[in-house]
Batch of 2 targets.
Target 1
Amino acid sequence: MNARRDITIELSRDGKQPIFLDIVASIVREIERGRLKPGEALPGTRALARSLKVHRNTVDAAYHELTMQGWLVAEPSRGTFVARDLPDLRPANDADRKSAPANAVRTEMRAPSPLRVTDGAPDSRLMPRSELGRAFRRALLGPAFLSDTGYGDPRGALSLREALSDYLESERGLIAPPSDLLVTRGSQMGLFLAASAVIEPGEAIAVEDPGYPLAWAAFRAAGAKVIGVPVDGQGIDVSRLASIADREPRLRAIYVTPHHQYPTTVTLGAGRRLKLLDIARYRSLTIIEDDYDHEYRFDGRPVLPLAVRAEVELPVIYIGSLSKLLAPAVRVGYVTARSDILARMVDRREAIDRQGDLPLEQALAGLIEDGALRRHARKARRIYQARRDHLAERLISRLGSEVTFETPAGGLALWISLRSGLSAETWAFNAHRAGLAVTPGLRFALDASRAPEAFRVGYASLDQSELSRLVDLLSRTRPD
Ligand SMILES: Cc1ncc(COP(=O)(O)O)c(C=O)c1O
């Protein structure tokens, strides 16, 4: 069928491959035949979608794919163009063309770029980069930077601790004065420092199983023995925690992700929260609460952190991160804890990393103070909710009899359990060969014999067409 500029797009509609790949192949063919020339404009996605009678996301996906492969370039607010740096691909004469094998286009076309499914990363394409860039410039060029170029407080820039203190109180009901806040390089550093402040080498920490392997690595690096507590459909099994605490005299701490359990996404209910606080109180355990994606709550209000509920004397080390709000590459996390524990963490931090990145911290303080971070969170929340719903809908319609999942009330990932008899490892292996990197449940299991047949699929970093492609690849690679 013809669209503007006479591009010939052939849609097979035989269901053998996604329609966007038909569009990709047709456009590559047009470029190779010289009917689309370097620098020439492509039709707008809306117009092309209308003329092909397909969803605009499908054309978006095709253009995105071609841009990633280097055939097209997208120029902001101008449109999409054939890349200017392509060699002349036209055959020398008609005879050459006739002698070319019919599948020449297919063989020359590079395979679609692999689709990497994260465990719940945000979409860096949405990050408020210009605002952060401006804030960084202000921080570097402002008078505060000149007076602060030497070594500063190992807890981090005061301006950021003040901004975080206000933010945590208004967004999460958490009272944390700036003096009781420690800014870290991501929550990963916070996890290591927390364990090293409350656990002596050889003592133990209980963790959720399945859970977050990087936390276990941090605890082990601090010398702790890591003991798994099973997780069920309501989150960590607190009765099992109590019996483990009874038989482990060296248990000192418990690490939890109560808001959205990692990896199962479940929110720990009120009953279990209260029991957990009770167990910690009577067994003298420190709770390490990792609240890594608090802002992303789509259904109902976010649940208050355990740290808000705990009384003053109960040690809860509360750890947060900007990795989900901005991007994992912006290495800023933060911790608040009882003053004596925080002081030990600050000492250890200073021993390995004298202080954080001051201009970055000042820039982030600016981003919080002027409301840009909140505005970004609001916008991202809307987009991620639509992506969550889109993925859930596609999964139900394409793989409804192979998988089950609870649509999570929040967070940036879906925990997808497989129908009995299906192996997540085999499926992930097949998918990998088809260009889809997806993480099977085994990766999150401390006790491999209990590894869940499941996938954790982060949906926030992929747009709707990418999510459709993900489900398509999953359904095409399903093991028998
Ligand atoms: C459970 C959990 N905690 C914390 C984080 C954030 O880590 P960081 O702040 O070091 O980037 C993540 C990121 O993937 C996570 O999954």
Target 2
Amino acid sequence: MKRMTLVFGSLVCLAFSVIALAQRQNDRPAGPNPGKLKKPQMSDTIKANVYADNWFMLYVNGELVAVDSIKFIPHNVISVDILPAYPMTIAVMAKDNADPKTGMEYANTNIGDGGFILKFGDGTVTNASWKAKQFSRGPIDRDTKNPRVENTPIPDNWFAVDFDDSKWENAKEYTEEQVGPKQPYFETDFKGAKFIWSDDIELDNTVIFRHMIKSPPDGKERIDYTNLNNVVPDAPPKKPKR
Ligand SMILES: [Ca+2]
Ligand SMILES: [Ca+2]
């Protein structure tokens, strides 16, 4: 009798195990290669550090990823996590604090200056290889008595991956002394990055920057998750062991 109970007990255990296993199989995502399904982790992201005098919005691969949360002063650092994909197109609209009618600031008492710097965790940095174009400048001829502003219409798709910036000039680099960044700039990793703006850091008040990188500057292989809803990405090729 004891032996019968033992056998029966074992059978019940086996039955539960089979049901549990079947249930687990059902929970697995369907697809050609469900065991290899890769989901992006935070370790797949990179940090984006951005500082603008005075304000910016940042697009990566045509998608809005960060907006300066403080319109003008105080100057703040924005740090966000982004999920990179290469080639990577970066587009930034940056604005100096300026009255749209006069191009001046602080109740039209001052011609303010701009400045923009960015560093990504993959080694991407701002420098003169970026494209830059101003879309609003003033006061024209530095005439503060009779201030005038010259605006250029901003193209609707300025942030798009396929936007043609081939005729744009390169950005101009400026020194830290010229821009005069405030804290927490000095506590943030901007090593290797340069301050950029268009030709006139004082009169150019709305500037768009664009930059494309074919592959990560740090050379690290990263999984492309851009089409995650449709495609199960493959793991990057393993580097040969030395
Ligand atoms: Ca200005
Ligand atoms: Ca400013």
